[in-house]
């Protein structure tokens, strides 16, 4: 694969450190700081859109076309490292997980064909538009109930009191998880993110390793209970299909639950939070959307482009390749920075501007591309659209409070710590 003539390798684990002329860019890159990475992304897209980071031992890919090309070529660029811990797991954390029986594997994102094709075909029949449409009234009830809890106060942290629980309650309804378990599963999901994509010390890994054991045991129990008592939810559907002859194992069903109980709500929590933040922070975006709800669908696409929940994802080269004119040796890891590609001026005119009327906003790559395109993309957009419609209708005077927004240090998930907001008068 190539978008330009080949260049010498730039500091890879096979051929050594980066040459001095690239050191400045690579050395100023902090892959864990997601507070405002976009100015760096813009500079790198212009000056060196593919470079090697010694900090995380990976090639950083920043242009839209290059990212799409890597995603699309799953034979050359494997997803096998997508869920691998960025930092080595300590011996003690490994012991905790081994003794606890932790054997979880990716539901889909780290699998490759033929297993990926087989499992995705089975799962998407149960986790798709038909089921989402059926649950839409319940989504609206969950959203309205969440707003009821704080609307009369005139202020709230809309992450902690709204966006944190709503996607979890929706997803857990789909997976048959009782509301009483929401906090535990959210805690386990946070541990998974930090242990996989964070920068934890060996001692910091240990409590998260214990949470991984609890998390995986819970997913296995979900599947086992469906064998005992059939249920109208995703694990119940998959067990029923298995009993009818579908080629999927209990371990694979538990792994699907393990993946969805993380990705199916954590990223939507972040999407809702970022949507509220960006719409309130940019000019008349909120009032425009409030006054014309037909803008909501495209506004969600623009939030996904401008402030995605996941700013970067990983791949591993299975053969020597060329990306953006740079030689990538076999065995190299790559970090595809979708948060950069989404603002690439070659695709998005005035890409650093937030515009809810942007005609091609949906050309973002926040859900990936190719065979691993996010399975739950329709659900995430549906939930966020319903949330924005309800908030803008019921809290028309919504505004951000002064606040210092911080983001969890990791390489992939751009999660704000709070969304403090106030309003003058609730409606309804």
UniProtKB/TrEMBL annotation:
GO MF terms held by the record: heme binding; iron ion binding; monooxygenase activity; oxidoreductase activity, acting on paired donors, with incorporation or reduction of molecular oxygen
Gene3D superfamilies assigned to the protein according to its UniProt record, in alphabetical order: Cytochrome P450
Keywords linked to the UniProt accession: Heme, Iron, Metal-binding, Monooxygenase, Oxidoreductase
Cofactor(s) the protein requires to work: heme
Entry-linked InterPro entries: Cyt_P450, Cyt_P450_B, Cyt_P450_CS, Cyt_P450_sf
Pfam families: p450
Family: Belongs to the cytochrome P450 family.
Job of this protein: Cytochromes P450 are a group of heme-thiolate monooxygenases. They oxidize a variety of structurally unrelated compounds, including steroids, fatty acids, and xenobiotics.
Designated name of the protein: Cytochrome P450
Protein species of origin: Kaistia hirudinis
């Amino acid at each position: 694969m190539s978008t330009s003539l080949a260049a010498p390798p730039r500091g890879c684990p096979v051929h050594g450190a980066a040459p001095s002329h690239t050191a400045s860019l690579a050395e100023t890159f902090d892959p864990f700081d997601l507070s405002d990475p976009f100015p760096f992304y813009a500079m790198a897209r212009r000056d060196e859109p593919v470079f090697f980071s010694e900090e995380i031992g990976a090639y950083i890919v920043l242009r839209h076309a290059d990212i799409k090309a890597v995603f699309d070529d799953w034979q050359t660029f494997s997803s096998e490292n997508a869920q691998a811990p960025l930092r080595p797991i300590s011996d003690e954390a490994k012991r905790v997980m081994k003794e606890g029986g932790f054997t979880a594997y990716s539901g889909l994102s780290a699998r490759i064909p033929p297993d990926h094709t087989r499992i995705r075909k089975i799962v998407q029949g149960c986790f798709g538009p038909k089921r989402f449409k059926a649950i839409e009234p319940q989504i609206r009830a969950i959203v309205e109930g969440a707003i009821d809890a704080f609307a009369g106060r005139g202020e709230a942290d809309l992450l902690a009191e709204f966006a944190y629980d709503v996607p979890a309650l929706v997803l857990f309804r789909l997976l048959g998880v009782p509301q009483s378990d929401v906090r535990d599963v959210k805690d386990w999901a946070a541990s998974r993110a930090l242990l996989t994509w964070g920068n934890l010390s060996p001692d910091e890994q240990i409590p998260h390793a214990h949470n991984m054991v609890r998390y995986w045991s819970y997913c296995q129990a979900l599947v086992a209970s469906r064998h005992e008592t059939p249920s109208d939810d995703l694990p119940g559907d998959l067990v029923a299909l298995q009993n009818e002859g579908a080629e999927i194992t209990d371990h694979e069903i538990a792994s699907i639950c393990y993946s969805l109980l993380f990705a199916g709500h954590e990223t939507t929590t972040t999407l809702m939070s970022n949507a509220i933040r960006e719409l309130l922070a940019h000019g008349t975006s909120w009032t425009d959307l409030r006054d014309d709800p037909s803008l909501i669908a495209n506004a969600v696409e623009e939030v996904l482009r401008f402030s995605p929940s996941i700013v970067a994802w990983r791949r591993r080269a299975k053969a020597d390749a060329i990306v953006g004119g740079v030689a990538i040796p076999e065995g190299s890891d790559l970090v595809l920075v979708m948060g950069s590609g989404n603002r690439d001026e070659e695709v998005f005119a005035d890409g650093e501007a937030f515009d809810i009327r942007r005609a091609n906003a949906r050309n973002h790559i926040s859900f990936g591309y190719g065979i691993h395109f996010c399975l739950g993309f329709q659900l995430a957009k549906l939930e966020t659209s319903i949330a924005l419609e309800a908030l803008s209708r019921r809290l028309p005077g919504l505004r951000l409070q002064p606040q210092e927004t911080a983001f969890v240090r990791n390489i992939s998930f751009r999660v704000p710590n709070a969304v403090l907001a106030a309003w003058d008068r609730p409606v309804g």
